[in-house]
Design a protein that fits this description.
It is built from 6 helices and 8 strands, in the order βαββαααααβββββ. The chain is α+β, with helices and mostly antiparallel strands and about 150 residues long. The strands form 2 sheets. Strands 2, 3, 5, 6, 7 and 8 form a 6-stranded antiparallel beta sheet that branches. The longest helix is centred in the N-terminal third of the chain and has 11 residues, at about 30-40. It is elongated and about 55 Å long. The two termini are about 25 Å apart. The mean pLDDT is about 95.
């Protein structure tokens, strides 16, 4: 895991890839749990028999489920020290260019895109590119904005 120390560490990594997470397999029980948590029971996600008849040949993960893997995968890739705490500020953009069929393995690649130094803290933006094993097309691309609260 990469440790980025303070604002100087962020500046030193601006424009650079921070790393790549481990592969995570997406299972039907996880998809079902996500459906239960969100109330999104659309059949393409939770009905394997019906989904088998689609072009995908199986159920697919919710796009937001894929995106929700980001915080855990970020924790595998990097940490930022030298601040009181880190807050997930939101996303500038999120797209789902390709599906994640059940049983797929996905991972995330993180790149530091921007740093915005402010009086009350620092915002930084990380490009999150989620890849599916065996596919050339990403399954999710997002720009995640984080907010760092200074020590003093």
């Amino acid at each position: 895991m990469l440790t980025i120390d303070g604002i100087d560490g962020l500046r030193a990594h601006l424009g650079q890839e921070l790393g790549v997470s481990n592969w995570a397999q997406v299972s039907q029980p996880e998809i079902d749990a996500f459906a239960n948590a969100t109330g999104d029971f659309y059949w393409i996600h939770v009905d394997p028999s019906r989904a088998r008849e689609t072009a995908f040949g199986s159920t697919i993960a919710h796009g937001l489920m894929t995106l929700s893997l980001g915080p855990g995968m970020s924790n595998e890739i990097y940490e930022v020290s030298g601040f009181r705490h880190l807050l997930n500020y939101g996303y500038e953009s999120v797209r789902f260019p390709a599906p994640v069929p059940v049983g797929s393995r996905v991972r995330m690649r993180a790149t530091l895109l921007a740093i915005d130094e402010q009086d009350a803290g620092v915002r930084f933006t990380v490009a999150q590119t989620f890849e599916r094993e065996g596919s050339d097309k990403p399954v999710c691309v997002a720009q995640n904005v984080w907010y760092l609260v200074p020590l003093s």
